[in-house]
User: Fold these one by one.
Assistant:
Number 1:
Amino acid sequence: MKLKISLLLFVSYFFSQAQITGTVTDENNTPLPFVNIYVQGSYNGTTTNDDGIYELNIRKEGEYTIVFQFLGFKTLKKEINVTEFPFKLDAVLKEDALALEEVEVSTKDNPAHRIIRAAIAEKDKNYEKTADFTADFYSRGIYRIKNAPEKILGFELGDLGGGLDSTRSGVLYLSETISKITKSEKEFKEKILASKVSGDDNGFSFNQASEVNFNLYTNLIELGPDNIVSPIATYAFNYYKYTLLNSYYEDEFLINKIKVEPKKPTDNAFSGVIYIVENSWEIFAAELSVTGTQIQQPIVKKLTLKQNFSYSENDKMFTLFSQSIDFIFGMFGINVDGRFTGVYSNYNFQPNFTKATFTNEILSFVDNSNKKDSLFWKNMRPIPLTVEEMNDYQLKDSIKEIRQSKKFLDSVDQKRNKFKIMNVLTGYNYSNTYKNWGLSIGSPVFNSMFNTVQGWHTNMDISFYKNFKDENRSYAIRSKIDYGLSDEQLRISGGFTYRFNGKSNPYINIGGGRKIVQFNSAEPISPLVNAVSSLFFEDNYAKYYDKTFASVSGGTEIFNGLRLNTSLSYEDRKPLFNNADWVILNKDNEQYSSNNPLEPDNYASTPFDKHSIYKFSLGTTIKFGQKYISLPDRKINLFETKYPTLNIGYTKGFASSDSKYNYDLVQMRLNQELKFGNKGTFSYNIKAGKFLNTDELSFTDYKHFNGNLTHVNLDLNYLNGFNLLPYYDLSTDNQYAEFHAQQHFNGYLLRKIPLLNKLQFQLVLGGKALMTPENKPYTEYSIGLDNIGFGKFRFLRVDYVRSYFNGKASDGVVFGISF
């Protein structure tokens, strides 16, 4: 009954607003989805939805030739005379008999090879035809879930926004966008005119034309961490097998339907069919699929890209008309499928670009783009909603006000905020969703840690946050309570951070208190790794001093790509000594080293004298060519850029209680990530600095380097430290330079080796160097395997490392994580 009512509402809605409307079916009356319908000789068109229903927006009465085009079916053209609106035009497509007959070819004379070679030879020319243009773009995205579990790893999923039915299946996400796109050979920008997210009046859709700008005339298609080789790439014959299935005429054009298959199942290549136009060797259509293994995304089961092109009499070429990306993925018992559909219209291939056409803003939303009413969408969307999509809008609109009400949010919070006995172990969170604030109390048990200075200590965090959602500002208060059972010292520290807006992201931070910190402020040894190393191996690598401090800091983006940060602090420092020798596994005739990194066997010495000092710092980050997204209330900077990022910093230590500890320090850092197509990514990170006006620098202010003696790397950033370098052996109060580089091949090399390619490992090569005036250069070289694991769980990395220092070579294996 509900389905009949939904269909009735849908039909009445559909015909009340449509211009030319109808249903497209096959000869068995089965609705055909994703059929191209367009006015012949124009860029005005649409596609059918999953129910086979379409709407073609034509505003003027007159005579038109309407083209119905669907892969595997004969193209149908209907000449009509529109005298009034709405105009109903149904179509029945006949299956192309030739499509059922696969052509048998010999391996010595494969006709598909002739066609593909010609397409490869002409691909650059065909790419240039459509390299520069402006167009209108419509996109719709939907995610569906089936049989969702109620809990994952003990955490309740809830009803996921209210879209689940009694079987815990339904629509997770549904959105639409209407935008203007501007593209040149090297640049791409998009202005979103309208954005709609089901169940969220203030939501901005993440459907973007730039994210689905897949061009098969290029060598590589970026569908994941590992690029997929196009079937007509320059080197495509290294990856593909081709079979000519049939050839047929579409008007005066001879269309060749070619089956493509990867030579190896693990190759980063598509499976499916591509249609090539004889003589011009343009793409007519494509339906291509990849697995999660091929795109280095294990949770993805299958992803299918469909593209349809239409011929323009005016421009004398085939242009991309519609595109869909279907996907299926799953993990932890969750199975999700979905589709992103896009329709291009109103092309202009002779745009008048100027120097001001393209800026670093690649995506923008006009004001009130997410406030368009239902009438606007009824008139503007080129693809009608399906029954499922219409039901989701109706359902989530009906429950939206209820779920945003104080009464409902308070009831949800009341259940979520209920204190449970396990919170004594795991910590406790309290939230007020309606007023956008929350309180978090860390676990007094799981946050407890061990070091040789404090012994077992609490290390418990307490924090409070408040968001002003409509104003895009927030503040947070945080504190840490740290009591050492062995040194019997209570240390409390905390801070307050206020963020003013989301455009330039200015902030101010005020902090103070007392805490223990590592001599290396970057803290290369995590508390957990240090505790395990100490308790099980009696290696207390982390060395600490006591700091009582007060500080104020702030920062803002001056203009796009240039950010300024500054701070002023007072620090009172004093050395610390070991107070605990407790172990789980005790080594014979060994004991913990002292807390003095300069004299690890001297338990009475200190690396510096107790003193106080003021510190001022000023730093700038320059992201050359930084791309960004503009929303009405905030700016989102993108990480990817073809240019390096430069950091320059100046620190001055002054007014020390011991004047010899005053100093100046200038530092710089240059880092970049370069993508080399299907051959992987090369990254580098260069750091350098120099101390000025120093007399006898306190060891707390030395430049310390991120070493590693634990053979474990949990940092995720493999370019920020060394693998085998002792933590403080090369610390300096002079000038220094360090260099980190790696080539991550993704699957480029290992997937070519039989048997090994089934493991899906990825090869990584690395090199590092450190130079200081007091020592000969320290160097490291590594070869590693990434993406280690099983099934969908692949987050391990193992590196074999060899280091060289003072004529001595050392070897080690480092185990880490990588995502």
Number 2:
Amino acid sequence: MEQQTFREAYGVLQRHADTLREQQEPNIDDLLKIVTESVAAYKVCKTRIDAVEEALKAALEGAGVEPSA
């Protein structure tokens, strides 16, 4: 899978959630693809969120502000 931006990965998660929510019956043939793509997209989003949290924490500590949990 090519490198995705947060927005692209989040879009994948939204589309798959909508697809699963709208199904009257589960489509087992597509489920593995949906799960595989969703896990990959989640990892991209989690990595980006963790990086932003770390950057904010470093910025706040550098400014003498104690970050809250």
Number 3:
Amino acid sequence: MITLKGENIYLRALEPNDLEFIFAMENDESIWNVSNTNTPYSRFLVRQYLENAHQDIYEAKQLRLAICQDEDFPAIGLIDLFEFDPKNNRAGVGIVIQNEENKRQNIGSEALGLLINYAFYNLNLHQLYANIGVENAASVALFTKFGFEKIGIKKDWILFHNHYQDEAMFQLINKNI
């Protein structure tokens, strides 16, 4: 049985009461370099996004899920399938966890495992990929733990604090398809 519930966390669809959490995450400049964000989002825009979050992944080409620890349901992170391509059975993966304490609890690892399982066994995807700044050792370690392999480097890809950084592309092939 496929589930989006793990031992310590669960993944759920976005809810209207996630507005303040998503607003804070989208406007956290410290993670803009990993989220490809370069301008602040208004509450109005985040509210509009949440109003359309009910769209099916086949329609929106994206699935964003909240990472939660308890049944009271406050989100502590977000995990995404993006650039969903049903013709070629692939999607990109992105993850962001709210604070260092949550990161140390292996929440990202559990969330990524649940999402990979969902993508491969519910959506029947053939491959997942992740774009990770080469200086982001924690993300590289997380994705390689699940078998993602580095397939290339995009030189000077990300401009962050007036310094260009390389970005690596990682790929995980579903061997069961």
